[in-house]
Amino acid sequence: MLIVSCNTSRPPAQTTTPATGGGGGGNSRITVGTTLRPRTIDPADNYELAGTNITTSLCDRLYTYKLGTGELEPQLATALPKVSQDGLTYTIPIRTGVVFHDGTPFNAEAMAFSLNRFIKNGGKPSALLSDVVSSVAATGNDQITIKLKNSFAAFPSVLAFPGMCAVSPKAYQIGSGKFLPTKFVGTGPYQLRQFTPNLVRMDAFDKYWGAKPTNQGIDFQILSNAANLYNSFRTGAVDIAYQTFDPQQVESLKQQATSKGWQAIEEKSNTVTHMILNVKQKPLDQLEVRQAIASMIDRPLLIQRVYQNQAQPLYSMLPDTFDSYKPVFQSAYGDGNVEKAKALLAKAGYTKENPLKLQVVYPGYSLIREQIAGTLRGYAAQKLEGIIQIQPQPEESATFFANQAKGAYQAILQDWYPDFGDPDNYIQPFLSCPKGDASGCENGASQSQGSFYYSDRMNKLIAQQRQAQDPQARAKIFGEIQDAIAQDVPIIPLVQNKDYVFAQKGLQGVQIDPILKLPLWQIKKG
């Protein structure tokens, strides 16, 4: 989620070993401009989009997604898992004839090593497995068996998380904190050649087991800010510009695309933005107050003024890319329902003479969230006649994330980048709380996210959908979950983002996948 400044120079001439036998791209290389600087590309420690954009092309997981869909398909596995009747044991057949970038043969032992390393090294995303997995073991040269602590229907989707990729047992070690942030040895269609603060180079892997990339390699040119990314694309210094632009820059590039021959590609994103309400802090401990805030939110206004129509309203914690999406906040509260907001506030005891003061906190690096908070402040002052006084408060990022779980803030503007493509990942990390009572959550996901919401019914619903193996049964439970959120209002969904990529004339195969983002292996120069 962090964007870190670094060098803005154009990629230097090739100084690393050229690819041998890579794909049908001849001598073509693709240069991708981005402002996202990876902290690490070790799959057991990377939990940021910047690193994932790179490792997705370097690695294979047991499962991936069919492009353009949320449908799982085998990658290093040869079939979907065989699940025991109690939902606790997953038996997975493993592909043969695969080698790592260092020549080490891939087998079930190597896959088990990779998953155990993910758990035991204790990296940032390790809880994705450690919280649910009891054991991982090779039960044959071409089979692994994973035992879970509790039944979890979405587990195959977890195995498609980029950090679950296979890494060479010869190059990596198991042990707390034993990470290789600037190295990568996997089985993917590309192998890493260079990793520096401003340039990451990868070449097509000539021994790749699957379809070879249609280009010879990828150069990630990491730029210091959106303005440099914008100018680098306009001048042709990069072939592709992807993440992140300001809305004004996106609009400018879109308008110039036809005359310049650029490709401007837009896709619905699975990234969402919420307002998290701290139900333990006054006055948000009053249901009427939370419902009043939900009523006053005008999503179309935010889309127009903040996003320049480069997003869409969100009326559930789930994005509408899921079949189980229900626009519950639209039916319950609408948009800019000022009269309902006033009535609820009056019931809670708030008037012009006794206004509700609401602190809305966001990380200071986020211009978008600053604009959301400012728009809400102006809207409340004008439409609700000062009965609600929104007080925007930027925080330094480290302070923001540290204080979020301590309950220091009333309301938080939070972006959410999902870990895996299942509705559970939009619900459980926000609303689950195994320890709490009517006064709020003491320890759990909702506490860590800053809402401190506790509901015995919600805990039971989350457990039920995790145990249900039948998709229709799960969808019904998710419907109940969404209804409960709209009633209790611990979180108010605001926006579902759109994703943009810009490509120079003549590039073929450029597309945005909602989950895999930018499939670089299928891009070639015409």
Automatic annotation (TrEMBL):
What's the protein name? Peptide ABC transporter substrate-binding protein
Q: Which InterPro entries match?
A: Peptide/Ni-bd (IPR030678), SBP_5 (IPR039424), SBP_5_dom (IPR000914)
Q: Which CDD domains match?
A: PBP2_NikA_DppA_OppA_like_20
> A GO molecular-function term, please?
peptide transmembrane transporter activity
Domain Solute-binding protein family, residue spans: 71-435
Q: Where is this region: Disordered?
A: 1-31
Origin: domain of life? Bacteria
Q: Which organism is it from?
A: Chroococcidiopsis cubana SAG 39.79
Intracellular or extracellular location(s): Cell envelope
Task: Tell me which Gene3D superfamilies the record gives.
Answer: Dipeptide-binding Protein, Domain 1 (3.90.76.10), Dipeptide-binding Protein, Domain 3 (3.10.105.10), Periplasmic binding protein-like II (3.40.190.10)
Among Pfam families, the record links this protein to: SBP_bac_5
Q: One GO cellular component from the entry? A: ATP-binding cassette (ABC) transporter complex
Chief location: other
**What family does the database annotate?**
Belongs to the bacterial solute-binding protein 5 family.
One GO BP annotation of this record: peptide transport
Q: Where is the composition biased (Polar residues)?
A: 1-14
This protein's UniProt keywords: Signal, Transport
